[in-house]
């Protein structure tokens, strides 16, 4: 795809991203082609969904709040500072945008691709397009149910045909997700045209989408360790057919250096400056003698040293003069390499996460040597992805006595801590999911005010339009099903 065509996609997305709240009629209008809505082609829908999911679903509000919750960052200004002080987190407008993007934008588009490209649709004979849409649908609904618990699924994405969808139980949604991914894998193994460059993630490579589907299955099975005795083995079975190496990473890498085409974390840092790197993140890496510290975190301008921001305080540092930020060209006087740039990649799932999933699964099954091998490979892969450190430096870190040096010394805390480091800076929502599931890293709950909430509040838009179906929950005491085994 030529750059000018990508720009038009970002222009359309910029309008959606700027919406804070809308009426149902307005959302229907936004999600509809006013000229010929029933005739929107798959070739136009595919780039739209492969942009919107990493950006509007994965990359914005849920991630920014989760980053503060898991203490990757500290909130040092405005809403994120309030969130870090556990203020106003039950506000139903907190993450309206993400909910609206999922249920009024992304899911209807994915459903349309699946309908049009399947037998009986208006563009039949496109199984690869359909398979990609099913992988993305499973991913999108997983974000929704992991954030809110019970959400619309069986009646979701129907737009004006059903303004009051029922909220399905999370247990049922998870089983549907696995079925959806199995269907996707079968579709992707069929013969048919590929979307090519209209697929902004894998450029239509069906084999990479298949490996992404299996890797996501491994992630979702591991999510169920508290509620399903077969979860660890099922995760391993899926992982065996997942990513082979970092070249298979499920990553969006098409951001551009324009005002509406930039990486959303870069836009947030440049326009708002709500985050600084948490002192807990910095202390953790210092205690481990982790060489990633200098590669990931910038010194404070004018002070020449790395200073972490304490979580839960009233100290405002929007200007970045007191505390360290992630390495970025936005930090005055800082030379590359950078972690965060306008065109930085956005990882949705990576090979290193898959290795940590395998490490945990093997550990739970008592296969300690295999767990230890996967754990070390996960660290190596994460360090290679996050930094430009040499193999010799990475090997020295792996041999560091601050890390477990034998299979018998490995435990779940060590695995999740390294996974938490690997999720910095762009995948804090997954770290939040791991903390809710395992309680690790334990210092996430050791907050000067209180532990994070156990879920996000249902949005005002849904409470207003679908109050009869919205569950009545307390975000601090009601965990989601895979967390505590109960539905709300």
TrEMBL record:
Name of this chain's protein: SusD/RagB family nutrient-binding outer membrane lipoprotein
PROSITE patterns: PROKAR_LIPOPROTEIN
InterPro entries given in the database record: SusD-like_2, TPR-like_helical_dom_sf
Signal peptide start-end: 1-23
Keyword Lipoprotein: yes
Record key words, sorted: Lipoprotein, Signal
Thylakoid keyword on record: no
